[in-house]
Amino acid sequence: MTLTTILILAGGTYALRAAGPFLRDRLEISEKLQRGLALAAIALLSALVLTQAVLDGQVFSGWARPAGVLVGALAAWRKLPFAVVVLLAAGTAAGLRLAGIP
Question: Membrane spanning segments where (predicted)?
Answer without folding.
Answer: 6-24, 36-55, 80-99
